[in-house]
Design a protein that fits this description.
The protein has 529 residues and is of the alpha+beta class. Helix content is 54%, strand content 13%.
């Protein structure tokens, strides 16, 4: 397995550096500008970042996440980590612990001999012992495969390409580059985008290999799959296999951007209901946005990882954890295309308005005010259409996490109004004292809550001084459910201990859009006076 991963990594990194070499050769052929200093500076910055980042992360973990690295881990976990590390000639990693009920696990460091693995309280609360070992083995796989080092080397290429783009973009008006600055900056930026996607692809590949490492060390692919379902989808509440441990872009078990939702459901004979897993997989398997989000993510879609793990169950005499055999009822292409149009229409109208006003000035058209009014009215219509789609005016019906996760026609554009009742178990970014968001758990699952007041500083003040008051409290939340691809509910109101807390973003945004519509009509009227 390691040889295959090494080969894939070397081929990918070689391809990346070929792109970089092509740009450097282009610069050499077309100009006599010494950009070597800029490239060297970028390399030095990345090397310094690689050297000091684990130590800075250590401080960040202690100061801002209240992580402890001297908590006594359960005996079964210590024995397992020791065995895996001995098998792979690794130093025992430092184990960090964050007192937060939201499950998360990640690793960081330089090499396999100075890795840190950080686990939250939620990992121990929601997973069985075998599942905890599977998650930790995944993190040890990242360390054993030198993922931190390989990804740093790979990320150097986009960094240098962007530096070249910035250097030549700022020299467009100079004569020293003989007019080639625009060409070089355009090529550098194009290759910067391409190299970024190559790096993301390499990261996703290494996630599959970390999963394979976990499977081979635990000899229990179903434990890893079940852990992914609980951590990535959230099928974890009321487990009768709960760990007995009671202790009070890192490389993690899942991408924090793409999998902060957790869905917990009923159990069949002690196992997570397979039907509920399939329901949770539908969005990733059928909604076209999921493919776009995965392309821009460091991690594969959870559903794809589950299916890949299930294919290996036969090697260990286990039944496949899951087979996705649901029939797709429609293509969902029409919904996707409509949402793309709604998403980009305001920007398109702005560009058309700028072009129209520019032509009017060139042609000395007298009533430019009319053009401005019509443009603003068109922008209002497009923006308000998008706003109404994001903040659906349908009734706020009582829903469960399990129900919401089974919805396919939902995205960052299309919302589902809902009311959830449950318990706040932790922060959206587990342990971070500056994070104002929450994780709520109801009788069927846990999901991310987006607390977003219009003024950002208000959010941070709430995170520091008020949000801890909500932990472990029963709460009723009204808001809009979306996926982007994080399944989350944007909060409109929260009711706790008989008191209601409001979020004013919806009302303020609606008021601003209505003011835009009124202003456009006023401009049109004034243009005729």
């Amino acid at each position: 397995m390691k040889k295959n991963l090494l080969g894939i990594s070397l081929i990918t990194i070689t391809s990346l550096y070929c792109l970089l070499a092509a740009v450097i050769i282009l610069i050499t052929l077309l100009t006599d500008i010494p950009v070597l200093y800029g490239i060297i500076t970028s390399i030095v910055i990345l090397i310094l970042q690689f050297i000091i980042s684990p130590y800075l992360t250590d401080l960040c973990m202690k100061w801002f996440y209240h992580a402890s690295f001297d908590v006594d881990m359960p005996e079964y976990l210590k024995n397992f980590i020791t065995e895996v590390c001995n098998n792979h000639q690794m130093s025992i990693p430092r184990i960090g612990y964050i007192e937060d009920g939201a499950p998360n696990a990640f690793t960081y460091g330089h090499t396999k001999n100075d890795a840190r693995v950080v686990l939250t309280k939620g990992i121990f609360d929601l997973l069985s012992e075998e599942e905890v070992k599977a998650v930790v083995a995944h993190e040890l796989g990242h360390a054993s495969h030198y993922d931190m080092l390989f990804m740093t080397v790979a990320q150097l290429v986009p960094l240098v390409l962007y530096a070249i783009y910035e250097i030549f973009r700022s020299r467009d008006n100079d004569n020293d580059d003989k007019g080639y600055g625009v060409l070089i900056s355009a090529v550098a930026y194009l290759l910067y985008i391409i190299s970024n996607y190559i790096v993301l692809g390499l990261s996703r590949t290494r996630e599959y290999y970390a999963d394979s490492f976990s499977i081979e060390e635990t000899k229990n692919p179903n434990a890893l799959a079940s852990a992914l379902v609980k951590v990535g989808y959230g099928l974890a509440a009321n487990s009768n296999t709960k760990s007995s441990h009671n202790t009070a872009n890192a490389l993690g078990i899942f991408d924090a951007k793409t999998s902060k939702s957790l869905i917990v459901s009923s159990y069949d004979d002690g196992f997570v209901s397979r039907d509920n897993i399939k329901q949770a997989m539908k969005w990733e398997q059928w909604n076209i946005w999921a493919k776009w989000y995965e392309l821009n993510s460091t991690h594969p879609l959870i559903s794809k990882r589950l299916l890949a793990i299930s294919k290996r169950c036969g090697e260990y005499n286990q039944e496949p954890f899951i087979t996705f055999d649901l029939e797709k009822p429609e293509s969902y292409l029409d919904d996707f295309l409509l949402e793309v149009l709604i998403s980009f229409l305001p920007s398109i109208i702005v560009l058309l308005a700028i072009a129209a006003i520019s032509f009017a000035i060139v042609l000395e058209y007298e009533n430019i005010l009319l053009i401005c009014g019509i443009s603003l009215l068109a922008l209002f219509v497009a923006s308000y259409w998008k706003f109404r789609r994001r903040y659906s005016s349908k009734p706020f019906e009582n829903r469960t996490v399990k129900d919401l996760l089974s919805e396919v026609k939902v995205s960052h554009i299309t919302s589902i109004p809902c009311t959830l009742e449950g318990t706040i178990i932790g922060r959206g970014n587990p342990g971070c004292i500056f994070n104002e968001d929450f994780i709520i758990k109801d009788s069927t699952g846990i999901v991310f809550l987006d607390y977003n007041q219009p003024i950002r500083i208000v959010n941070k003040i709430f995170a520091l001084f008020k949000s801890p008051e909500y932990f472990n409290k029963n709460i009723k939340v009204t808001g809009w459910y979306r996926r982007s691809p994080v399944p989350y509910v944007e909060i409109k109101t929260m009711e706790i201990d008989g008191q209601e807390k409001k979020v004013y973003t919806y009302g303020l945004t609606k008021g601003l859009y209505l003011a835009m519509g009124i202003a456009s009509i006023v401009l049109i009227i004034l243009s005729f006076l």
